[in-house]
Write a structure and sequence with these properties.
- It holds the Pfam family MarR.
- This is Putative NBD/HSP70 family sugar kinase.
- It comes from Kribbella caucasensis.
- Keywords: Kinase, Transferase.
- The protein has 432 residues and is of the alpha/beta class.
- It folds into three domains: 67 residues, Arc Repressor Mutant, subunit A (Orthogonal Bundle); 154 residues, ATPase, nucleotide binding domain (Nucleotidyltransferase, domain 5, 2-Layer Sandwich), CATH 3.30.420.40; 132 residues, 2-Layer Sandwich (Nucleotidyltransferase, domain 5), CATH 3.30.420.40.
- 36% of the residues lie in helices and 20% in strands.
- The chain is built from 13 helices and 16 strands.
- The chain has a five-stranded mixed sheet. The chain has a five-stranded mixed sheet with strand order 14-13-12-15-16.
- The radius of gyration is 23 Å and the shape is globular.
- The relative contact order is 0.14.
Length: 432
Amino acid sequence: MVNVQGPAPRGDLVPSGIVGLLGTQGPISRVEIARVLGLSPATVTQVTKDLIGRGIVEELESVPSKGGRPARLLGLVADAGVAIGAKVTADHVAIVTVELDGTVRSSTEHEYDPGATDALDRLGQILAKEVAELDDRLLGVGVGVPGAVDSQASGIVDAPTLSWQAAPVGPVLRAAIGTPVLVDNDVNTLAAAERLYGIGRDHSAYLVVTIGRGIGCGIVVDGGIYRGANGGAGEIGHIPVWSSTAGTTKATGSGQLLGVEEPPCTCGSTGCLEAHIGAAGLVRTARATNVIGPRGTLATLLRAATTGDSRARQIFADAGSMLGRALAGVIHTVDPEVVVLMGEGVDGWEFWQTGFEPSFRRSLLPARKGVPVVVEPWTEVQWARGAASLVLASPFDSAGNGGEQSRLVRARLGAPGINQGMNQATNTGTTP
């Protein structure tokens, strides 16, 4: 197992680093804490004594040790602090409250119109109501959006599917709810959650690829999320592709394919991978080829495939083949240890897979043909839990992705009462 914690925490990172380790790996001994975080036994003893006194950490049962007296395990007091995660979509906001160990305590859903003139104010009102219903244990709020975010700390968003351009999501929400707010691309939030609670605990380089309304990719390198120069890394849905589907479309004299060739994309371009095999692209193809009626939806197409319609299954297989070719290119660029597939589209993965596997493996270099692809079961709560992970990952933010907002979260973990003065944590960066 790789050490996903990164460099040894110092200063204000020490208590939050210990809390984060207990939250992600479960009860462990002081000796193991010192080994994993690179701290001296004396430091661990001093800091954990303080955390126990504040009701954040508790001593559990003893376990046998190699010589000497049995080692006492330490564990989190699960309700010592919580994070809120919000996943913003084109028609609703999903919100969860998550405990330090990643347990989802509650989930809600609110109708939402991101295209409204007061959309950001409305989002602030929704979150303010959720915050008001909590007690004084909130550490911060994480927000996942389907678009590019300049940085988690500032939270300025470009999201064509939401009709947002340079939207000041972070500043508006901090002013509205008075807590630290971290904002990132929604697929990056899933990658953060995998780092804390999933496959990222065993691998330091991996991809999280989502299929559904769009096609996204979170890239983790050396245990950290790679965001690129402007926060837009991983937009594989906008790779230009050419469709070579057969049996589901009809070629014209110009060599173009009716129904699927050069379809328009929400980004303003045409022929993007997402435009072909995102939810809208699949529906467009199915309607154009009369596999479903003019009012048919993706659910209609999936039902047809499930009941044995060979044409419906071919549409998914063709989509899987196109995804496989595109993803092989990403593998050659990033060289991950493993790929995780997630998102709404995995509900029909058995139909995608028939085209994906041969196309993907055939397109890889010999040294990469064995890269594992893990398909994870999907619920929408995972999107919002991923957003909450931005807050819960703050103890490991040695790269400084969360800036002042991550520091404010860490201060809550290391300060008496966790949230005394929490309403001072606005976009001005005042320490609570």
